[in-house]
Hints:
The structure holds two protein chains of two kinds.
Chain A: H1 18-27, H2 37-50, H3 63-72, H4 75-85, H5 89-111, H6 114-128, E1 133-134, E2 137-138, H7 151-170, H8 177-180, H9 193-207, H10 211-222, H11 227-234, H12 238-262, H13 267-275, H14 278-291
Helix pairs in contact in A: 4-5, 5-6, 5-7, 9-12, 9-14, 11-12, 12-13
Chain B: H1 13-20, H2 26-38, H3 40-52, H4 70-82, H5 86-116, H6 120-127, H7 131-152, H8 165-170, H9 172-177, H10 190-195, H11 213-218, H12 222-227, H13 235-252, H14 267-298, E1 307-313, E2 316-321, E3 326-329, E4 337-339, E5 347-353, E6 363-364, H15 374-377, E7 387-392, E8 397-400, E9 407-408
Antiparallel strand pairs in B: 1-2, 1-6, 2-3, 3-4, 5-7, 7-8, 8-9
Helix pairs in contact in B: 2-3, 6-13
Amino acid sequence: xxxxxxxxIAGLPGSIDPALLLELWSECDAPGCGVTQAEFNEILALAGxxxxxxxxxxxxxxxxxxxxxxxxxxxxxLVLARACASGNERAWERFMVLYRQPLTRAAIAITGSETLGxxxxxxxxxxxxxxxxxxxxxxxxxxxxxxxxxxMGWLRTIVAxxxxxxxxxxxxxxxxEELDAPAREPEPEELPADLAVLKQAVAEAxxxxxxxxxxxxxxxxxxxxxxxxxARVLHVHEATVSRKLHRATESIRKQIxxxxxxxxxSRRGAEEAxxxxxxxxxxxxxxxxxxxxPDAFQESxxx
Amino acid sequence: MKPYSQLDIxxxxxxxxxxxxxxxxxxxxxxILSHLAGCSRCxxxxxxxxxxxxxxxxxxxxxxxxxxxxxxxxxxxxxxNWQLAWIPAAALAAILALVFFMHxxxxxxxxxxxxxxxxxxxxxxxxxxxLEQQEQKAALAMKPAAHEAARQAPLxxxxxxxxxxxxxxxxxxxFASATPVAExxxxxxxxxxxxxxxxxxxxxxxxxPVTDAGQYxxxxxxxxxxxxxxxxxxxxxxxxxxxxxxxxxxxxGVGASRSQNAVAPAPQYQEKxxxxxxxxxxxxxxxxxxLAVYRAKTTGLPSGLTAIATATAEHLTLAIDRSGxxxxxxxxxxxxxxxxxQWSGRAVLVRALKAPGSNAAGSxxxxxxxxxxxxxxxxxxxxxxxxxxxxxxxxxxxxxxxxRNWKAKQE
Lengths: 303, 411
């Protein structure tokens, strides 16, 4: 039995405690999906190695960290997905029983159209089954599932991504793109001097914001989500979102005032400049929120 | 650096799903958030996933408590948790204190009434002469008859002889009138058809009709009067009531023989109905006095100064401020009227006392009005309800019955 030895993959750091592998093996119904213990060990080793057991790349992973990471995985879903990806018929039967109807319903809910949702779900089934090939090899998206989060959630995310991409491809000429494209730069010569100073101060104030603050500003001001919707995304209470948003805007305002004072304005002048035209400030916020991100996060069409 | 933090690369579906399902550690979560802040495609994706997910999976969590050091939790949390509770707790304590205070005052009053209740009978005998004595004898002769009637027919008129609270409050003055002889026309009539019962008189054995509530209201008997708590009669009151009784006897010429046909109310009625009306009136006046005193001592008087001495009797409250000015109010301290100085020196003390010719007894500084209800109910405006004294800084005393006009009191 292969489980007696620590699992490891050539080229990937670390080996997993055999006792842990045996324990995890006994907890999930891998044989029911036609997966052997050796295959199970390899699946876990790969799942852990891809994300370095949840740690930063290059970090040394202890046995405890390995155990904690592997125990956090959805092992049943992971085994089923990998068994399906390897073409195991028993696994496919189980997959179809468990996920076909829910996935179709999710696709209809995401697209808002029964026809489009069903088409999207069927297309995804075809891909999952490995009908598509690349370089002559059978290719299955389930290979990329590593067990972090549920398999059903992963499937929903795949459907959502494809629907968004489908929508973008078919609606390029519509104003939706304005959300993505950077706001048009005003003509420099038309920009008043005081507004240029204000713009620079706002840009500097936004650059140092934390990721969560920028996410809140984007969801609330750019996407127009309600506090309740944002709270659902972040799994926090609605009041928490409200408080953080208020704190973020206040902090940005203070930072802008400081920036304006640094370039020579008095505090009163800075306050007046900040409150002179809220619409300009709002437009600047909308634009600079995207521009404030590092280049690595700049969005472009992935397709 | 993660793949999704590279240019032109989005987080994979697993990372986004793990973000939605909170399966990422803080480091990866921040990376995803950083990407989401600038990527509307991925934001749209997670919005759609969130919307499509079952509600039970996306139930919002209760906000996490703010972490604090253990020592701060032990010491600070108690105070912190009680900060908002202080307000209703204080209000509740104030209400309880007021209720307790009112209860104590009522119990004290009831105790005093009970102690004074047996007193009227000998007082009346002392005060009454001639026809009065005959009336007293007749009235006293009614008592056994009434008790006998109640004993023999206890169920016939129990309900009828227990008027409602409204009846009792409306006729508090009649209860207090203490008419020793029942009205002649009230001794029969309607009740005979309904509730007439054989009630042997103690003297003649005649049939005495059992009273009902309406009859009782028209003229309570001596038995009622004797058990009336507010009948803490002083000799003056007893004499006044005896005079009323004499006048009625002389008017109808019935005399003592009528006592054989006198109405005999049930004892239960007397015990339950008597105190209610007077207590309600007393409470209102007491509260008005308390309120006036409270206002004088807290919010101050029209002079801008707070009161150093107060006195309350009936509906009237007097207060002396720190400058020696006297103010009076009849509306619980809402409006104060300054009284012209009619005394020498500086007034330092005001007190309420029993007015001449009345049973009223006021209270000084404590804000309570302990005077009896008789002066209000039966005497009406015939005698002043209260009297006040002012003491100046030289020990001299001035006297007034209305708080406006003061006269030097002769020793």
